[in-house]
Amino acid sequence: MTDWNNQSPIYLQLADRLGQALLDGTPPEGQAMPSVRVLAAEYGLNPLTVNRALQAMVDAGLLESRRGLGMFVLPQASERLRAAERERFLNSEWPILAAKLRRLGLSPSDLQWSYEEQGQ
Fold first, then answer.
1. CA distance 39 to 21
2. Chain segment 41-99, per-residue pLDDT in tens
3. Which of 55, 77, 88, 91 makes a 20 to 30 Å CA pair with 62?
4. Are residues 67 and 21 in the same domain?
């Protein structure tokens, strides 16, 4: 079971989680997404909710529906998603984080930023 919050509709939260998996390469571009039934069972959701999430991803240009075959990840889906996530982060999350860092008196050298420490 997955925890859902009350901040946004569950189908959008699911679309976000599936998008994060796409950024990690799961499934790879050109490959099929898991079926609605599989996703509904995995996340403990109604299949209609899963369908709405997948449709939101189609609308965002990340997936395409192939009649009788399912949903497939479009080429460049991860690049489109990464660009949208970067813009959202820089416009919404970063200003809040930067303000908190200033309030705490933290500088870039205090952060000891390293991709290796994060397993990347």
1. 13
2. 999 999 999 999 999 999 999 999 999 999 999 999 999 999 999 999 999 999 999 99
3. 91
4. yes
